[in-house]
Please model this.
Amino acid sequence: MNFFFSFKNNFIQSRLTIPRFNNSGQYQNSLKVFEAKADSNLWKINEINCDFNENFYFIDESLTNNDSIFFLAKEENIELIKKNNYSKLVCFNNFTSTHPVEYRSNLKVTVFGGGFSSYQSDYPFSMIGKKGSILSPLSNLLNKKSDKNIILIKNIYEEPIHEAFNLYFVDLIAKKVLRKDKILTNFTNEIIVDPGLIEPNIYIFTDKYLGIPIYLSIKSNHISFEHTHPPHHYILSNDKFKKVSEIKKEVHEIINSQSI
Amino acid sequence: MKSLIRNLFNTKIGVFFRNFFEVRPKYFLLDFNDSNLSVSDAFFWRTDSNYKTLFKFTNLLNFFYKDKESQIEIIFYDKNNKFIKKITKENVLFSDQLLIDKFFLDGIEDYGVFYIFHKTKKIHNSIIRNSCYLGYSINNSLPSFVHGNVCVTTKNFLGTDFKAGIAGRSFFKNQKYVVQNYFDNYDKTELLVHNPCAKKISFSINELNFMLNSGCSVIVDIGTDTKAHIISNCYLLRPIVINHKLGFIDAYHG
Model:
């Protein structure tokens, strides 16, 4: 099962387009869009009354906040979360569990009066119970010469909490932490990046929770919006987790050696 | 007995029948027990119609294996899978970028794909896959980025034993793939399609039929159609989508 999410700020319009068919073209028209939000240590679930046509649901920024997540379900599927008193997200159904290509929505951002950019977006259920760390390069998807460079970090955690955790900007050559921010679980966090940080040797790193880092760059009203893959995506052999954990350990050591 | 069946299942003939009968098909014809192997996605370059393509990549051998002597080789092919040129990059510590325009390609204003391989004399006993980032820029605008998404070619770390077309193919043209987005009110939408299989494939997009030889590429303009239905005999025929409106573009993987 996949969750979907959107983004809201003052100078960008967003639109989330959720297909009513899977990527093989099969429909399940009885599924509706629900929103989940963490509130007072409970998941609040509401059916969303959004625009739709025979193929898609459309959620614009008026229907979302940075703590909203969305999913497709039948009303009876919501009983599953009632059983745990709304204390933990559950797999509501398997319509959006597709293989080998994941079931994706489209998350599109538009600059007022300017360009637009999107990516095929999802947050897999398999990620929401895991803790860990994000390690992602800054320079691959941001541009030093852009007017604005922003990182969005979306975390969805199964428990309905807004817990703060750390985001570090780490120089892997100088072995220094250059910046530290607090970000939240169950939130689309927006981090504005200074051009001076956009260098090949500078990576972002989180210390407790996983998430999806999405990079947004705007120049002269043109916009680019894309996510990076987790590091283990780049190793296909059995040593993938060993290698990734070695690198993350190195970054941990850099962070631990400095009191920020 | 179980291990015998598993071994048979993974032989060349076993994989042929799995893919023929579509029983637990193998999407990539890659032996994951292999080692010292560099796998590349097919990266679609464009220099036609005032496009430039910016490639941003990471030196995976240095990043993961601290191999500072490793090299990066990038090999360019045209849309008919004819070799154009090869470049080698050395001393890339973390990431680097390459601008692909008509000057870089000696005047070629067209499209095709390139592959990136990592080379080293050292033994790392691993398989790495480069699926880094491509940015499409029209009229010198900010590039719209997409990541690589289908493994297509391999070379060993010595830079030899080139294998292309490692994506799996079904016998029948019955693989349906619908891009999960609504092409709402665009001036036009283009689908950038590459054949990642070792043999010719047949496919249709919104009922228009195409044949594409191994390694070849085509840009399909679907105009103002609001959806893209693809039927093919390739398990992972996933195009790059470019939506156009009022001089702005949005590129993403379908």
About this structure: Chain A touches chain B through 60 residues (CB under 8 Å). Residues 240-256 of chain A form the longest helix (17 residues).
